[in-house]
Each structure stands twice: as C-alpha cells, then as structure tokens.
Amino acid sequence: MASTKRDYYEVLGLSREAPETEIKKAYRRLARDHHPDANPNDPGAEERFKELTEAYEVLSNPQARKAYDTYGHQIPRAGAGSAGSGGDPFGGFQDIFDAFFGDQFGESPFGSFFGGSGMRAPARGNDAEVEVQVTLREAAYEIEREVKVQVVKGCSVCDGAGGTKTRQCGTCGGAGAVRTVRQSLLGQMVSTQACPTCGGRGSIIEVVCDNCRGSGRVSEVETRRIRIPAGIEDGMGIKVSGAGHAGERGAPSGDLYVRVRVEEDPELMRDGDDLIHRMRINFVEAALGTEAEVPTLEGMTAMRVDPGTQPGTTLTLRGEGMPRLRRRGRGDLKVVVDVMVPTRLNAEQRELLKRFEATSGEETYGNGGGESFFDRLRSVFR
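^ thats the sequence. predicted structure below, dont judge the formating
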C-alpha cells in the first residue's frame, strides 16, 4: 500500500541534492513560521509542525537520509520506535530545539574506530544573550537592573522526561545505551552506542506531555536581577554562569551574557576613564576671567577661568572622571574652553570694538598661550 506521507524534500522545499546546511536553514525558517505557539488560532499548525520536524529528523541524519533516498517511506524496520516518536524507524525523536540552539550531543571519537556509531553523551546547554541600556551617570555607580531573557528550561510538568507516563525501555533496561561485541583481528571489541529504541533516554514515553509536546523542555521568559559594576564601558558583557539554556538530559545549563549599552550623555563625553566637557564662555569672559558652573557626575561645581584663557585650553578636575573598573581611583574631568565670538553687533558695540582695537598692540595679546589651538585640543585626548 502506497504511503500517504508527503515527500520529505517537498515538505522542506528542498531539492534532493540539498546540503546539510540548507536542510537546517530551511527547517529553522519553516519551524518558526508554523510553530503552534506562533499560530494559536490555527488548528492545523501542530500537524504541519510535526511534519516539518519529522522531515528534518530524517534528512539531517546522514544514515537515515541515505535509507530514505533508497526506500522512501517504506524503510525496513529493525525495531519499534519510541512512543514519543510516533513509530519513527530512525530511533528516538530528537529534541526539536536542536534546530534552534545547535547540536546537543557530542559523538565519541572512538566509535568509528571500533566500527560502532559511538556513544553520544548529553552536552551542555547553549549560552543566551540579552542587552541592557544604562546612562553614563548610571555606569559611574554600581547598580542593579532587571532583565528579561527567553531561555529553554526543563519542563516542570514532566521533569524533563517528555511524557507524563513512561516505562523502562526493554532494549537497554533503562541504561539508555547498548553494547555490541565484535570479533576483529585485535580480538574482541566492545562498542557502546545510544539505544536505538529509546534514543538514549532509557525510557519509553507512553503519554506525551502536553506542556512540552514530548521534547522535555520548554521556552520561558525569565526575569533576572543583574548587578552592573561601576565603571563599565559600552559593549562590555557580564557573565551569569548557568543562567542560559538548559542542557540535555541533566547536562549543565549554558551561561547568560548580558551586553551593556551605555547611552551618550548630553554634557559629558567619555574617553576611557576620563570625562570631557565643553565649556562655552564669551570672548569678554575669556579676556577678563570668570567663574563658571561645570557639570560633574555628582552635580554642578564652580570652576575659575583665568583672564586671557585661550580657545581650546583644557582645565582639569582631578578624580572627577569615571571609576576605574575593578580598580581603585577615578579618571579626570577635562574641561575644554570654547570661546564664543559675537556674530551680531549693533553700531555701538562695533564702535567700542574699533576703539579697543585702535588702542591695542602685540603686547595686548602676548603669545596667545604659547601653544597652537590644535596642540591644545590634541592634548585633551590620550
């Protein structure tokens, strides 16, 4: 009797010559579009998603794909599949999250040497990453922020078993692995591999868990409180060990990396541990001297500007910069003087300036501070 199943290549929209990378890429794209959670009002989404996953499970496995290319859906069965796989002749139903978060198993390098497939051990979970925004002034102090991160966790309903009712696998006796003894020129060789009946779980799922749909894991949004150290710079990351995606079958979870983005400040520019402020005064204040208000991380502070201060002059407030990350002390606040020259003069002002110019000589201006404007500006940045 002919199979009613659609061709797996047709399901994924691929040619029969498609490489493994294209198979994985196609499944990721289609699975996101047809996942039941993304289509809550579509009763057919779950069946389409199962069809996609079944096609991917076969075509992403080189041995299973070769058998499918040869026999199609009528593949000779060596044994019954697990209850959670719907009778899949290729072994246990591999976790659907593999397609989104990478391979979850590492294969033993000794398997091919002894002729076996090698025993696949559960691997550590993948890392997760999230961004958090802070202001420059917040970055100057140790603060705490709440972040929301979507991670894959072990299903709390079935405790990661994938089913609410399971029984011990009769093939491996619950060990999740089977041993094969072979005779070779070197003598008797024993190889260990994942149990083909239960897929390495050690148990057969009789009632699939509705919460995780048999995968043993679910995607959840967690809220975590993150401590951000004083002096952190834009783009730096904070590692939270074990707060990433859950590992497979009891393996350790991955880590969470919190990427910190420091917003620009309208008054203070950061240069490493130093801060730079552009202080604008008019040419009369620069000539006669003045006292100006300067913003710091703690608030406004008064600063004296000496008579004859030149444009680009840098005035330094020691220890008023950013805290040095995980070190003692702070950088400096460098105040760059920007002298404003009038652009709109009335007749009286113009006449006063002409009289001033008539009574001025080289001695009035001196040497302009000795340094060129560009030399003064260059000294601001390290």
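The first strand starts at residue 105 and ends at 106.
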